[in-house]
Structure formats: structure tokens, C-alpha cells
Design goal:
The protein is mainly alpha-helical and 188 residues long. It is 78% helix and 5% strand. It has 8 helices and 2 strands; from the N terminus they run H-H-H-H-E-E-H-H-H-H. It has helices spanning 2-5, 8-36, 41-64, 66-70, 86-111, 125-150, 154-181, 184-187; strands spanning 75-79, 82-85. A two-stranded antiparallel sheet has the order 1-2. Helix 2 runs antiparallel to helix 6, helix 2 runs parallel beside helix 7 and helix 5 packs across helix 6 (125-150). The N and C termini lie far apart (44 Å).
């Protein structure tokens, strides 16, 4: 472990993976901001913190299960001469989830959501946190698979994820505020 501290390749991997995780995490932050925008301000902050904390735990668990993730690319079945792996199915399910969520948010932004009494409906805190975790899991699959190919040492990968999640946590409030102040960015 001490040899990693003095290894130039480990430091290069750490820097590269951290930058990659941050760049790939930007779209995650946009979705998190959209999800939490329907919560009261204090609950939104708590949901972002809890959701990102849980997402960090799931990302670390994914990294520890590297051998399993590498095996996800083996075809499970073939349809129309195209092999589908578990990775493909997970990404497809995640993409459909994101498509549904984006369509729902656009509809809510244009049509508005009110209850029978005419009051604006707020999202449930637990449901929002669960959606943040699910979205982060889907978004993290591509970066984790890339990390597997870029770095040799799991501790370096875990440190890169932790640093990137700290940056995402710090950036989540300003990004949420920007999206709240510029609602058209939701559609983008």
C-alpha cells in the first residue's frame, strides 16, 4: 500500500480518474437538482447530502466488486444477431428510467402539479433520495467500467471516487440554485 504513495503511475491514475469522475458526475448533478427542486429548500439540501452519501457507498461497493462488473459484458442472450449482456440490460433499464423521469419533469414544469385543493404538490423526501441513489448507480456504471480499464489498484479508484463525490457535494448547491433560477436548463 505504501508503494502506491510513491508511485507516479498511481498518482497519474488518481488524477485522471478524479477528473473523469467529476466530468461524468456533472450530468448526475443536473438530474439530482431537478429531482430535489420539488422539495422544500431545507429538505432538498438534506436529500442531496443523503443521496450523494449513499451514492458514494454504492460506488465504493461497485468498485470492490470489480471482477463481477467485468463479467457483465458477456452476452446473456441474443436478439436479432445482437448479444445482450447484463451491462446492456442495466444501461437500457437505466436509460428508460431517465427518459421517464425527464419526461415527467418536463410535463410537471409545463403543466404544473396541484392537488385537488389547488396546492402545489411536493415530492416525498424518501422517494427523492431513492431516485437520487438509483440515478447515481446508473450514471456511475460507465465511469466505473472506465476506471476498471484505466487503473490497476482498487484503493486508487476508491480515492478518486471519494474526491469526486466531495466535489459533487460542494457543487450540488450552486448547480441546484442555478437550475432553480434558470428553469429552462431542465429541458436542456
Amino acid at each position: 500500500m505504501l508503494d502506491l504513495v510513491f508511485s507516479a503511475s498511481a498518482w497519474a491514475s488518481l488524477l485522471t480518474l478524479t477528473v473523469m469522475e467529476i466530468v461524468l458526475g456533472i450530468d448526475n448533478l443536473v438530474f439530482i437538482s431537478v429531482l430535489t427542486s420539488r422539495l422544500p429548500a431545507e429538505a432538498a439540501r438534506k436529500a442531496r447530502a443523503l443521496g450523494l452519501s449513499m451514492a458514494l457507498v454504492f460506488r465504493v461497493v461497485f468498485l470492490i466488486m470489480l471482477s463481477w462488473l467485468i463479467g457483465l459484458t458477456a452476452p446473456v442472450f441474443t436478439l436479432f444477431d445482437h448479444g445482450f449482456s447484463w451491462r446492456d440490460l442495466i444501461l437500457l433499464a437505466g436509460g428508460l428510467c431517465l427518459l421517464y423521469q425527464a419526461t415527467h419533469e418536463i410535463h410537471a414544469g409545463i403543466e404544473g402539479e396541484e392537488d385537488k385543493g389547488g396546492n402545489v404538490v411536493h415530492a416525498a423526501f424518501g422517494a427523492t433520495v431513492a431516485q437520487i441513489i438509483a440515478i447515481d448507480i446508473v450514471f456511475s456504471i460507465d465511469s466505473i467500467i472506465t476506471a476498471i480499464g484505466m487503473a490497476e489498484h482498487v484503493p486508487v479508484m476508491i480515492l478518486a471516487v471519494v474526491i469526486a463525490m466531495i466535489v459533487m457535494f460542494v457543487a450540488s448547491e450552486p448547480i441546484s440554485r442555478f437550475i432553480h433560477n434558470h428553469p429552462t436548463t431542465k429541458t436542456l
